[in-house]
Design brief:
InterPro entries (chain A): AAA+_ATPase, ABC_SmlMolc_Importer, ABC_transporter-like_ATP-bd, ABC_transporter-like_CS, Mo/tungstate-bd_C_term_dom, P-loop_NTPase, PotA-like, Transp-assoc_OB_typ2
Radius of gyration of chain B: 25 Å
Catalytic activity (chain A): ATP + H2O + polyamine-[polyamine-binding protein]Side 1 = ADP + phosphate + polyamineSide 2 + [polyamine-binding protein]Side 1
Largest interface: A-B, 26 and 18 residues
Protein name (chain A): Spermidine/putrescine import ATP-binding protein PotA
Oligomer: heterodimer
Largest sheet of chain B: 2 strands, antiparallel
Number of helices of chain B: 13
Subunit structure (chain A): The complex is composed of two ATP-binding proteins (PotA), two transmembrane proteins (PotB and PotC) and a solute-binding protein (PotD).
CATH topology of the largest domain in chain A: Rossmann fold
Largest sheet of chain A: 6 strands, mixed
Number of domains of chain A: 2
Organism (chain A): Paenirhodobacter hankyongi
Amino acid sequence: MTEAIAARGARPWEDPAVAPFLQIRNVTKRFGSYTAVNDVSLDIYRGELFCLLGGSGCGKSTLLRMLAGFETPTSGQILIDGEDMSGVPPYLRDTNMMFQSYALFPHMSVEKNIAYGLKRDGVKRAEVATRVTEMLSLVQLDGLAARKPHQLSGGQRQRVALARALIRKPKLLMLDEPLGALDKKLREETQRELIKIQETLGVTFVVVTHDQEEAMTLSTRLGVMTAGEIMQVGTPHDVYEYPQSRFVADFIGSVNLFEGRIAGDFEDHATIHSPDTGSEILVSHGISGVKGQPVAVALRPEKIAIERRLPETVANRLRARVEDVSYMGNLSVFHVTLPTGKPVKVSQTNRLRSDDDAIRAGEEVEIGWDGAASVVVTA
Amino acid sequence: MRLRALAGWLRIEGRAAVVAVPLVWLGLFFLLPFVVLAKIAVSESVIARPPYLPIWDWAEGVLNISLNFGNFQFLTEDPLYLLAYLGSLKMAAVSTVIALLIGYPMAYVIARAPSNRRNILLMLVVLPFWTSFLLRVYAWIGILKGNGLLNGLLMATGIIHEPLVILQTDFAVYLGIVYSYLPFMILPLYSTLVKLDEALLEASADLGARPFVTFVTVTLPLSVPGIIAGALLVFIPAVGEFVIPALLGGPKTLMIGSVLWNEFFSNRDWPVASAVAIVMLVVLVLPIGLLQRTQSEKEENA
């Protein structure tokens, strides 16, 4: 068990001495002429809760199914705990999967569903009973052992599926959109429980999801996938704050992208000339690129200040016109346009319950941000 | 208001009309003939036209009803009838099991085939129905007889030197029944198996079950409704089967269908023939009714 990751402190992926637990090496999967997974390489470490995040059809589920053994890679190699998995059928793998549809056996009671894996392993009857009872209490289903799946609510079924997948104490647990069918409140609650269970058992989790909020909440690290390729791998913080491409910046959270070219490149700062803003944008960190190279400045809405008049100390200041204000409760989103016609999204926390002096649609304002607030992406 | 009342009335009437169609059909073509049959079964046999006496007569203000249960009693006295019933049940049961053993893998393969090939395979299963049932059974005579196709082939290839006696044996009857009723086994099995969620099979494999274990613990229990439906569709008509044993069976093949035919047409004893038919109906309906009750109870408890 790796309590270190469980406590969410250590970063084994930064430690060259730690061998990855799951290695995906140049894996490609084609269905006929369609490439579902394209040359993916990925290392996942023991005790991680890794999220594969992407839209539908991006290949994340196919990748997961290859880990479980339901699909065979067209080329490439998958190693689990140092062991090459090619040719190993699902029933001989020390991995378990929680299916998106839960795939509970409809003709078996909750208890029999959960015990299924242990019985296949030839575990003695008395031990099966104890472990099923343990599992039932871990997923808080005590007293429902005799029910059939169709007598359970969606949330309860999801717990049975989780218990059934966990009972064999697999080395690797795969979860395919585990919380997709639950409503928002239940989902948030279950996310916390899932993390708690994962920390208690120390099993390595690989979760497939299309919900970026879910990926951010759950994962130690996440991989953003599109069109069969992994675009970026990192902690939720890294991926959100340091996206490496326009796609990742745009996929995770919302973002303003200002297209432009590198105008000045210095040791500790750079300037980007952007027709979108009609100005030179100051970026107060060095960038890797050559003068004139096309880049985009990615800027999150919450990192932009909006005032009727901004102090002149703000590095990047632009005049803008408020088109629309969306009140979201916890924050307000201002849709503004620059004189160049470029729309920009700015969000602000609503600190006051009501503000008579609030900026309204139609007003001329200034927006601005610090040189460190933005990220320059080249891809 | 009045319009709504009219609409409500129409809805109720409409529903009644929809239910009425099958009810009238069943009444006309099942219940009525059954009542006639029951009436004949309790009447007295005579040499006349029709060959039985009416069960009541009206004379001088007195209604005389005479119900003759001697026909049923007669069935218990002659062991021929019991043996024929048992023979039919055995024939039907064995054929059903064989049809299940052959039909299940076929249904499974069709259900697991890629969806564009499934319809072609299903059509191949149903295709024989385009030829009359009687003709297809006749065709088997040509194949199975002493100097028929099968013996010719076996002798030409040198596997046997004397023609085998296949026609007019129980084997030929089994062959005929299984061949004729196999589609009725395959179709309900297919429709159950095609609905089986593939994720369940994957979940089973994922939890450590080898393919055979998955089949026994997941696929087979979940296809029980299809097995029951298919078995009933083969078993019931096979019990009363007459054409196949008459054409392919021999003198030793004892089935209730032939007995019925003999009583009716050779002996012209309509009352006994009717009694035979009614007993057969009871023998078939009782177990089916029981089966359905346990099934629905099971579903309620599930």
